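Case study 2.
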Amino acid sequence: MKKVSLYEKVPPLEKNFTVKFMKFDRCENLTPHWHEHIELLYFYRGGCRITCNKTTFDAKAGDIVVVNSAEIHSFVVENSVGYICLLIYPEFFSDINFSNIHIKNHIKCDSHITECVEGIIKEHKQKTHGYDMMIKSYAYSLMTHLVRSYVDAYISEREISIHTTNLERLNIVFNYIADNYSEKISTQTLSELCYLNESYFCRFFKAHAGKTPTEYINEYRIEKAALLLKNTNDNISQIAANAGFDDVNYFTRIFKKIKKQTPSEYRKSIITNENESQRSLS
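Prediction:
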């Protein structure tokens, strides 16, 4: 899988430590992407709709989501969600037989996994002597439990080769959209990048990304627009144009469909939340 140009780059190892712990409070959506590391998401607040490995499901507090290596995934947040993210780097398995294993994506309320995650949180927070060894210990216990209880497929070398080729094609498309989202983008242009017939390309894209090219482009543009609403004083028409929408009414309709708020309501809610945060700190 090393030759794949990853859409989301793997964060660099810190002191060659093969497990990374992060905590997120997120209110924005995550567009489809992939990476080489395994990602374990433990939800402690709220919930969201996740598309992973072509399957869509709802994750809520207490659930674990496993994102396997090189697996396209995304999620949609209706309000806000809090989760712990553990990144298990490929180097973690350098002396372990973990090849061609696919772990079940959605795991509900497993007490052993919860215990391991909470142990990692505690060790990471306290950082007492030997905490790094304990984090690795919990990570090994967690991964062993997943392998023994939640393997749902063993992938052949041929399947890996086909998947790699598909990722390479999608990577070209994702990068083109990221570089040109503010301009007009046609499915014909995207299909030509992959040397595919346009109708076949649209089926291929939806099969692997979980949504149509137009849906993906709109979601990507809306996330860019949301950042502009948060970080600039530009008016709605300017933001719509900068995000690639030439019709402000269409922009507002798509924004509300994805974010459950109009652009104006979204900007107002950000200001309100920031003011409340400042008052709580004063």
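The first helix runs from residue 111 to 126.
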